[in-house]
Amino acid sequence: MESSSIFILTCQDFLMARCGSMLATQVFFSYSIGMGTMAALGSYNKFKNNFYRDAILFTCFNSGTSFYGGFLIFSVLGFMAKNQGVAVQEVAKSGPGLAFVVYPEAVAQMPLAPVWSALFFFMLILLGLDSEFVGIEGFVTAIVDLFPQHLRRGHRKEMFTAFVCFIWFLIGLCMITEGGMYVFQLFDTYSGSGSVLLLVVICECLAMGWLYGRHRFYDDMKSMLGFRINPWIGWCWCFFAPMFCTFIFIFNLVTYTPLKYGDYVYPGWGQVIGWLLTVSSLTLIPAVMIYKLMKTTGTIKERLNKLIIPDLMEKAKMRMATSVTRKRQKRMAMQKYSPPRYK
């Protein structure tokens, strides 16, 4: 069958690093890897929550939904390709144009076109709102956890969330103008995708697998789950994931070409703005590291040893020490007090 070509992938295409780069970017966006949203949402779970089971179920459902969406999209593209007498690859390319130009055109050719068009754009609205919920919650949770004494009083968190939504709304206004698609492509390419996410994920893998230590992380998960997970996951944290991301990142740098949208090549000042967006996303990593090193006392080695210990662990030790001290003081006070004996 002609529609089965969705599964056809030549060895040459599979071995191309550009294909791996596209796959990695899609996986990062689909699972919110490197964006902090999963960590922010997971912070609301109970300590003994089985996150290992949740991660497996989330992966299965997400991949299944992607396959289902692929069948749906390619069935529509195949319908248009058959009507136009061309190959599926010639109907449209991936990107915003597929959702806002090609797909509405295909829906308009179906029976009950107004109904399907209304449902399609309603689905896009729900999809955008759903993505905003996760993105905003991850950002707001991180800021609130940094400044709990200021943002957890009264309705300050709700007010701060409304302020963030308003700022994001103002930023989005420039993307719905006549030249908004060019602004959107600039943000989409440079601000938080592709090489930026790859670098963030590499830093996360190195920090978790080597600085904090995968064995220590395994012990933390065992205290939450009650059992140790498969050890091959630790090998992925330390070796496979950072090596794969590093290879794709180097390939992206070697094969870098100026940004284009259709036949329009972005000018030099547009490329500069794009790289400034990239730098703004990555500068926080070394900036926070330098700030923490300067704020901590001791030699460089002592500072690094202190900084790789999470604040939560230090606070837990302090609480435990305080609790033990209080119990000891209470026991000593009871021993000193001898109640009178009545005969």
TrEMBL record:
InterPro entries: Na/ntran_symport, SNS_sf. GO terms for cellular component: plasma membrane. It comes from the Eukaryota. Its main location: membrane. Keywords: Membrane, Metal-binding, Sodium, Transmembrane, Transmembrane helix, Transport. One of its GO terms (molecular function) is metal ion binding. It holds the Pfam family SNF. SUPFAM superfamilies: SNF-like. It is found in: Membrane. Na(+) binds at S30, N62, L127, D130, S131. It is a multi-pass membrane protein. The keyword Cell division does not apply. The chain crosses the membrane at residues 23-44, 56-81, 159-184, 190-212, 232-253, 273-294. One of its GO terms (biological process) is sodium ion transmembrane transport. This is Uncharacterized protein.
